[in-house]
Amino acid sequence: MIPITVTKETYAEPVAACSAVGIFEGEDAKNLPEDIPSGVIDELKGLMQKKQFTGKLKELRSFTLDSFHHALVVVGLGKRQEYTLERMRKAVAKAAIFARSVKAPSLAFNFHLKDVDPFSLTTRAQEATVAALLALYRFDKYKTEGKERARMKKLVLFAQARDRPAIAEGARTAQPIAEAVMNARDMGNTPANILGPADFEEYARKRAKSNRLRFSVLSTRDLKRKGMDLLVAVGKASKEGPRMIKIEYIPSRKTRGMKKIALVGKGVTFDSGGLNIKPTQWMDYMKSDMCGGADVVEVVVAAKRLGLPHHITGIIPLAENVIGGDAMRPGDVVKGYGGKTVEIMNTDAEGRLILADAVAWAEDAKPDLIIDIATLTGSSIGHLGYEGSPVLGTAEKALEVLEQAGLDTHERIWKMPIWKEFEELIKSDIADLRNLSKPTGREAGVITGGLFMKQFIKKTPWIHIDIGNMSWFPEARDYIPKQASGWGVRLLILFLERFK
Ligand code: BES
Ligand code: ZN
Ligand code: ZN
Asked: Which ligand number lies closest to the CA of residue 444?
């Protein structure tokens, strides 16, 4: 993790190799902080007069300060009245990526804007810091050549005396949040030969231990004994047997309105599709089919480090969906935890199978709310592209809080209907349920996927988040590099902070 310092030093001093400052579109350069060297202001004014710099969002101009041998970067923030937390994140990410491109070992920025949005200075400091850290993320662990040599070594936040407590607090909370997202990205990017069910278990056990969280595992034998045959069926063709892990955070002191929340994350460490094998172009990145599970581990750890006010139990069913003589077949009938029978119409619709056992087991502990997060369907891409996650659920109040958390983190959600008629689509001719919608399997993909899990929950309010689209970015975007995005971590943390 890049260390962060909060200092009263200013742009007038050579504290960082690169210092960034934001400016609104069409506004005078004289609105910039007064400690910006006057030479820069004059030059910028000239550029603005000639319309060579306008301040539109993410426009960037760098000035070299000979006296300090460092660069001052002016980044456009777009129009003042359109400014949001997300625009700030984008601008910060732009500056961070620029700083890295010129191999600057340190980056500084400030918070001189006043009355720009409804968010507190602490929130802005937190989110700017998170955006910078996330923008600088890179997954080059397995490169032996061409690794980035000059790494960013320091982030500096300028703060005048009276702003210092708020900014320092934002910088403090930013670290567990950014670390959680980056760890989730690392897990999603890690190949399946290195992160199988046993490795995932080990990783989560270590994270639990070093953060003093409760941790336990149901082995394949335990699963069989308990009748969790859906998870067993999905994972049994793999050399590394299926298992279910539990990582638990209990707040040190009881707070009023404290809730017990189960977070359930899909942990398929590789999804070949099984006997209904996936087409070539979809397969390699199915190493990321455990992103929901990674989110859950990291959110529980972050909950502990941030001292969030709820009792949170993370449950992750782990399995590798591959092919072998022992693999489940299309047409097999398997009984889930609690006794419902499922006709497996397609071995590639495996996420809902393992999650069915997991949510049913989660309910045994009588939580107030169950949230599952899963790379459940490719059809989520068809629905919302790469702009937000489809969700469904029965927990109306929690959904409202989640929706606002989605807008504020820009990890947006969109609620899908769960009309009664959809239930018909997942009824089997010979068993209670089928894991593919009727008649072709393409009908209401996201909804029937989620609705399948609902059949295994008796009465607990529940939300399903499908991150099949958002967990993996084909192209980089601002503070999200391409490939595993860690999507959902920031959303869930903010939700848990606000939910009452
Ligand atoms: N892990 C996949 C979903 C997925 C696919 C996520 C592509 C991201 C990108 C899931 O297990 C799956 O294969 N779902 C099938 C369901 C279908 C058979 C009903 C799908 O979406 O095609
Ligand atoms: Zn699948
Ligand atoms: Zn899958």
From this structure: 1
173 inside domain:
no
Q: Report, as an integer, the average pLDDT of 126-133.
A: 98
Q: What per-residue confidence (pLDDT) applies to 69?
A: 67
Q: pLDDT tens-digit profile of 153-210? A: 999 999 999 999 999 999 999 999 999 999 999 999 999 999 999 999 999 999 999 9
Task: For ligand 1, say whether the CB of 436 is within 6 Å of any of its atoms.
Answer: yes
* Domain termination site, one of 162, 191, 211: 162
Pocket probe mutation, ligand 1, options 348, 384, 437, 485, max atoms within 8 Å of Cβ: 348
Tens digits of per-residue pLDDT, 481-495? 999 999 999 999 999
Say yes or no to pLDDT of 67 above 70: no
332 touches 236 (CB < 8 A) = no
Q: How far apart are CA 316 and CA 264, in angstroms?
A: 6
Same domain, 396 and 445: yes
Same-domain check for residues 96 and 18: yes
Domain with 124 in it: what CATH number? 3.40.220.10
Question: Ligand 1 in contact with 468 (CB < 6 A)?
Answer: yes
Q: How many whole angstroms from its chain centre is CA 138?
A: 16
- Ligand 1 in reach of 378 Cβ (< 6 A): yes
pLDDT, residue 332, reads: 98
| Catalytic center residues | 278, 352
Token pair of 371, please?
């949230």
Which pLDDT score is estimated for 68?
Answer: 65
Q: How far is the CA of 448 from the centre of ligand 3 (A)?
A: 15
Q: With cut-offs at 50, 70 and 90, classify the pLDDT of residue 29.
A: confident
Q: Are residues 137 and 245 in the same domain?
A: no
Rounded distance between C-alpha atoms, residue 183 and residue 165, angstroms: 28
Looking at the domain assignment, is residue 175 inside a domain?
Answer: no
Q: What is the mean pLDDT of the chain?
A: 95
Contacts of 201 (CB under 8 A, 6+ apart): 217, 243, 245, 318
Burial label for 475, CB within 10 Å (0-12, 13-18, 19+), is: exposed
